[in-house]
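pls ignore typos typing on phone
zinc ion + seq
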Amino acid sequence: MNFFISMLMVLFISNPFNTSEVTPEIDTQKTEIVIEGTDQMKFNLSEINVKAGETVTLTLKHTGKLPKAAMGHNWVLLASGTDVKTFAMEALKARDNEYIPKGTEQVLAYTALVGGGEETTIEFTAPAAGEYDFICTFPGHYALMKGKLIVE
Ligand code: ZN
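k done
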């Protein structure tokens, strides 16, 4: 067998992914976020950074002790351009749907409502680059429980 052909085969087999784009793309496609809500009506994060189009796994942990009916928390990501106050007022009426207005196009992603000691996880695709508000829609919480999702 020709020596050079053998060498070429070795090189080919040992380096099957010669294109450098392949590996980094896989590395950056998934981000895990953990955000905590407390009995003091606060999120521990006011800013979350992700990359457009990546899969985001978000876990909301309620680190308090109060029950869901008294101090429920959720994490609701709003479409850009949504008026937070107006939306929060609308959400108040959706008590039977854990304060998520049915049929709304202003919600990009949301978690279940949790009480003290509970946690819940969702997965969503990060939207286009920009800044998005997130809030807790439990009555009276949005003014304190809010932050920005920054998408690069
Ligand atoms: Zn809350």
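The first helix runs from residue 3 to 14. The two ends are 52 Å apart (CA to CA). more later
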